[in-house]
Amino acid sequence: MISAKSRTFRLALLGSAGLLGATALTGCGSGDEGDGDQAARSGSEDNRQSATQVVRATNAKTSKAGSAQVKLETTATSGGRSETIKGSGVMDFGDGTSRIELGQDGQRIEQRIVDKVLYQKPPKGSGGLPGGKAWMKIDLERLQAAGGSGGSQVSDPADSFAYSKSLSEKDVKKVGQEQVGGVKTTHYRVAVDVKKLAKGSPEQQKKLRQQLGDTVPMDLWIDGKGLMRRQQLEMSMPGKAGGGTSKTSDEKIEAKVVMNFSDFGTDVTVKAPEAGDTVDMTSKAIKQGEQKA
């Protein structure tokens, strides 16, 4: 029998997996097209470019591929417990439209992003949503305009790769050659200063440092055509949706999100849930973010 504490952690992990997946997966359309065009002249140019140039270029080159199938694996650790959630779906690199399903031990969560609005269907038995609705809705543009990350690590997906424009040579390290899904890739390690994610906003920088620390460690696996084949992101986040003043490890989740990309150019058809079956949680997310500031 699953204890209430374990069940709470598992549901938090499911939600975090989906939201982190949204943040990390749908940012490919925000890069510098100039860098991509320069690097796109030849897949073999990888050997003649610096590691930083290759990483800067992969944003635009992956975006030009249009879409892909995605496999997602999130491992989270909190209070000595560790669990893994796996999922899969499709996404459009151009506008961030995506659909992904995640699950573990019979509990499943479905997430869609349509027109920069995130829809999430909680697992059955998780307590439900107000009014008996099946889907929660968060307007990502409203959330960003209000000043940032909200209460559940939700952010504008289009910003997740914006850091690539400002990377310096010291921020990127070439690790070596590795196979990903049968494809030869080059593994790069990136240390992203959260200041570069804050867009000059002291308030946002403060929130990001509280949430993520001074830097965000990220690993990228890029193939010979400059396409992203795998992305790995590690971060620390509050473990309880409602927050709290305690800073003990029990109230934080250390998460690692690994995403594999394949079948570039796949069809992506995603529709928003019926309006009558959704409840807008944007204001609540904004309020939670303000309380944590």
Kindly report the spatial arrangement of strands forming the biggest sheet: 7-8-9-10-11-1-2-3-4-5-6-12
Quote the CATH topology: outer membrane lipoprotein receptor (LolB), chain A
Q: What is the terminal separation in angstroms?
A: 38 Å
Low-confidence residue ranges: 1-5, 19-45, 149-160, 241-249
CATH architecture: Clam
Beta-strand level of the residues, as a percent range?
Answer: 35-45%
What's the SSE pattern?
HHHEEEEEEHEEHEEEEH
How many individual domains? 1
What is the C-level CATH assignment? Mainly Beta
What is the percent of helical residues?
A: 10-25%
Round the mean pLDDT to the nearest integer and report it: 74
Structural class: alpha+beta
Cα Rg: 19 Å
Shape: globular
Number of helices: 6
Strand tally is 12
SSE inventory with pairings:
Elements: H1 4-25, H2 33-39, H3 51-64, E1 67-78, E2 81-92, E3 98-104, E4 107-114, E5 117-121, E6 135-139, H4 140-145, E7 172-180, E8 183-193, H5 202-212, E9 215-223, E10 228-238, E11 252-262, E12 278-280, H6 282-292
Parallel strand pairs: 6-12
Antiparallel strand pairs: 1-2, 1-11, 2-3, 3-4, 4-5, 5-6, 7-8, 8-9, 9-10, 10-11
Helix pairs in contact: 2-3
Features:
outer membrane lipoprotein receptor (LolB), chain A
In short:
The chain has helices spanning 4-25, 33-39, 51-64, 140-145, 202-212, 282-292; strands spanning 67-78, 81-92, 98-104, 107-114, 117-121, 135-139, 172-180, 183-193, 215-223, 228-238, 252-262, 278-280. The protein has 293 residues and is α+β, with helices and mostly antiparallel strands. The N and C termini lie far apart (38 Å).
